[in-house]
Amino acid sequence: MALSRRNLISISAAALAAGALAACSDERGGDTADPAPADGTTGAAPADGETTPTGGEAGGLIGIAMPTKSLERWNRDGAHLEGLLKEMGYETSLQYADNKQDQQNNQIQNMINDGAKVVVIASIDGTAMGPILQTAADAGVKVFAYDRLINGTENVDYYATFDNYKVGQLQGQYILDHMDDYKNDDGSINLEPFAGSPDDNNVRYFFGGAWDLLGPEVEKGTFTVPSGKAPADSDGWASIGIQGWASSGAQSEMENRINSFYGDGKKVNIVLSPNDSLALGIQQALEGAGYTPGEDWPLLTGQDADLANVQAMVQGKQTMDVWKDTRMLGEQVAKMVDQLVKGEEVETNDTETYDNGVKVVPSFLIDPVVVTMDNIEEQLVESGFYTAEDIGL
Ligand code: GAL
Prior knowledge:
Blueprint (H helix, E strand, L loop, with lengths): L4 H19 L37 E6 L5 H16 L3 E6 L4 H13 L4 E4 L8 H9 L3 E5 L11 E5 L1 H15 L12 E3 L9 H18 L26 H15 L8 E3 L3 H13 L10 E2 L6 H8 L6 E3 L2 H16 L21 E4 L2 E3 L4 H6 L6 H4 L2
Parallel strand pairs: 1-2, 1-3, 3-4, 4-5, 5-10, 6-7, 7-8
Antiparallel strand pairs: 9-11
Helix pairs in contact: 1-6, 2-10, 5-6, 7-8
């Protein structure tokens, strides 16, 4: 049976992760971890030889390790999951790590020391966690990878995320479905692709889902890529990755491409942006270069339905977004954590896709949704995710 593209991405990710495992170190940075958890959890670490029980009654400490406060979605994710777990009777330790894996590893160590039964981790660099997750396993602490798979270690018990490959497919398919509206007079279509942070395991899936659709069209000449930044295949995403998903990085990359390859009236027609923080930087570069919504503004994709980008969509500066209702992810993870702590069967719906280089991590995938001006009210307002005034409707 031919391996699906999605599975091929998993295999290459696994191989990469295995290599990284050999190289990864767990340098403990200075103690820059956030202060002790606000809820005053100070449970003593389990006595030597004791392991943290997971099985039996609910309650106890759950660690929540989020990557950064600087990207909007993680603030939503952390607050929502914390609230759900508290409602279920758990204590929580919610920490943010400034996009520094060493800092996050320190914070996880503190959670283990405080007697956490489970740690839920949205990692920064999922290949640099082997030692800290061995420490967790030795202490009997269970590990959930949240949204981003953690690679190169057997000590990841579950993974919950949105279907990352489908996120990219939705972006790529939207471009194919609407590209004719962005053709130049001579029939050409100038496409500029971007990819996310090279240390984020999700990026290969986002880019793979999109480029499996768009790459063959570039080869056929449907699209031209004036900057030349068109990876030869879906595995080439790192060459166009923007470190840390930084809006500023995307803005300067887009400015460089416009200044270097779009003289004498040539226009950018379509931009593949893998998420909203990059799309925001790209919007700023386009505005700075004199592009005007409703006139020559390119088709611009995104992901996460961040507030500023949804507002930009209303203003005609972003064409589509891939919405991942992070409330659903939080509810699913809270349910799975509770099942695990109580020793019940943990609900998963994918035990094939996510090979982390050591094992296939049992996962739960949630479907992402395309949002455009055609369904923005139904999807984002009627669901209560935003209000109409939030987004400028
Ligand atoms: C990814 C995440 C996306 C994207 C990015 C920046 O791992 O799945 O939602 O926004 O990180 O946070």
